[in-house]
Design brief:
Blueprint: H1 4-7, H2 12-17, H3 25-28, H4 43-46, E1 53-58, H5 63-72, E2 78-84, H6 93-96, E3 109-110, E4 122-125, H7 132-137, E5 144-147, H8 157-164, H9 171-176, E6 178-179, H10 182-190, E7 194-196, H11 200-214, E8 223-229, H12 244-247, E9 252-253, H13 261-273, E10 279-285, E11 292-299, H14 306-317, E12 323-325, E13 343-349, E14 355-362, H15 366-381
Helix pairs in contact: 5-15, 10-15, 11-13
The chain binds NADPH dihydro-nicotinamide-adenine-dinucleotide phosphate and N-acetyl-L-glutamyl 5-phosphate (X2W).
N-acetyl-L-glutamyl 5-phosphate is lined by residues 149-150, 199-200, 229, 233-234, 261, 283, 285.
Length: 396
């Protein structure tokens, strides 16, 4: 594996010009050629500084892997040092993702077994569900891991068996893993070695509901989630139901009453409410490439008003760079967060007395997957959480 680009010291002049910060935590345990990290505020100087956290992207030929590589092309600290693929191993990354042909420093995709892990500090694991347990178990301890699959998200092994249809193959790692919903579990994430990055639907439901349940402003019963996803949520592999002819000009629900994101969402909401929460959740496949909307119907608790819900969310997320609570009457739209790590939330009074409608939109590939994964690795690494992620949505 080619790692020379990562360990190459920055030209002396550039090192001098770069503003430096403390060494990221992920680097502290290992010897490094350079100890300087450029700050985000100095992009022109930054480009000459070394990217000195060496990352591997496992499953780089898939959509979330691609999105990690795309976002890291603007990241001042994280270098792409290894890319893995399965059926596409041996190919150049730009052969399958020509829009990233300018990312000239990324290595050729190899099989996971061919990665030299002594040259890697951190890994993004963008593999299908149920394939990551043994892979992550086999990695050396010094490698920090953000797993984008669902393999480590459920804390209870019985719940995992029930929803994913098999015994967990690394229960000790399941106990160690920290759930990576950054805005909610930030303190735990900071010290984690293994992050279970949340699912896209669970992110879009938990971010708006967690603070409301924790504050007792909504009832923990009768929560109904009507969720919609772009087709990239299903990954890049060829499937008949994902053909243009099957997707365009129509929508369909799927996983009705049995989608595997239900237990993940309920786990988080139960943590917020400090009691068991059960939801009704129906996802839909939409004829769009990216984007996700969850429209959530809730009952107000203890005489709370819709204005109080909005104020509570605004207060909770006021200092959060990636979560924006919109003003009264403002309708969120997936196109206003497209390609970005931003989440928009809005709260409306329902016509039915005592109820509210909460709408949350995000990009399933960014805050719903790869963006949040980078946000989490930023945190673990002790660099600003927003590093490499501040780009606005792509519009129109
Ligand atoms: N798409 C989304 O919006 C979201 C996805 N996720 C999760 O992220 C993970 C990746 O999703 P996504 O990128 O969409 O999936 P894709 O199907 O697009 O990509 C899967 C990747 O895994 C590789 N792969 C498949 N099987 C194996 C195997 N047995 N061993 C090693 N590598 C393998 C593929 O390689 P190759 O192509 O070479 O065969 C490909 O690189 C999944 O767990 C998914 O649930 C999470 C949140 C949102
Ligand atoms: C449109 C579509 O098929 N979406 C996927 C969810 C996205 C995903 O990959 O699941 P995780 O978030 O759990 O990783 C699904 O419903 O299974």
């Amino acid at each position: 594996m080619q790692a020379a680009m990562l360990t190459r010291p920055a030209p002396a002049q550039a090192q001098q010009a770069s503003r430096t910060t403390t060494v990221p935590a992920v680097l502290q345990s290992r010897p490094r050629v350079s100890c300087q990290v450029a700050t985000q505020e100095a992009p022109s100087q930054m480009s000459a500084a070394p990217k000195n956290v060496r990352t591997a992207v496992m499953g780089a030929s898939g959509y979330t892997g691609e999105e990690v590589v795309r976002l890291l092309s603007l990241h001042p600290t994280f270098a792409v040092s290894a890319l893995t693929a399965d059926s596409q191993a041996g190919k150049a990354f730009s052969d399958i993702y020509p829009h990233l042909v300018t990312a000239t420093q990324v290595p050729t995709m190899v099989k996971i077994a061919d990665v030299d892990w002594s040259e890697i500090d951190a890994a993004f694991c963008c593999l299908p569900h149920a394939t990551t347990q043994e892979v992550i178990k086999s990695l050396p301890q010094h490698v920090k891991v953000v797993d984008l699959s669902a393999d480590f998200r459920l804390q209870n092994v019985d719940t995992y068996r029930e929803w994913y249809g098999g015994e967990h193959k690394a229960p000790e790692l399941q106990r160690e893993a920290v759930y990576g919903l950054t805005e909610i579990y930030r303190e735990e994430i900071k010290n984690a070695r293994l992050i279970a990055n949340p699912g896209c639907y669970p992110t879009s439901v938990q971010l708006p509901l967690y603070p409301l349940l924790a504050a007792g402003l909504i009832q923990h019963e009768d929560i109904i989630v009507d969720a919609k996803s772009g087709v990239s949520g299903a990954g890049r592999s060829a499937k008949v139901n994902l053909l243009y002819t099957e997707i365009a000009e129509g929508i369909n629900s799927y996983g009705v009453t049995k989608h595997r994101h239900m237990p993940e969402i309920e786990q988080g909401l139960s943590d917020a409410a400090k009691t068991d929460v059960t939801i009704s959740f129906t996802p839909h496949l939409m004829p769009m490439t990216r984007g996700m909307q969850s429209t959530i119907y809730v009952k107000l608790a203890g005489g709370a008003t819709v204005d109080e819900l909005r104020t509570a969310l605004k207060t909770r997320y006021d200092a959060e760079p990636f979560v924006t609570v919109l003003g009264e009457g403002v309708i969120p739209h997936t196109r206003y967060v497209r390609g970005s790590n931003h989440v928009h939330i809005s709260v409306f009074p329902d016509r039915l007395k005592g109820r509210a409608i909460v709408i949350c939109v995000l990009d399933n590939l960014v805050k719903g997957a790869s963006g949040q994964a980078i946000q989490n690795l930023n945190l673990i690494s002790g660099i600003p959480e927003t590093t490499g992620l501040l780009q606005a949505a792509m519009f129109p």
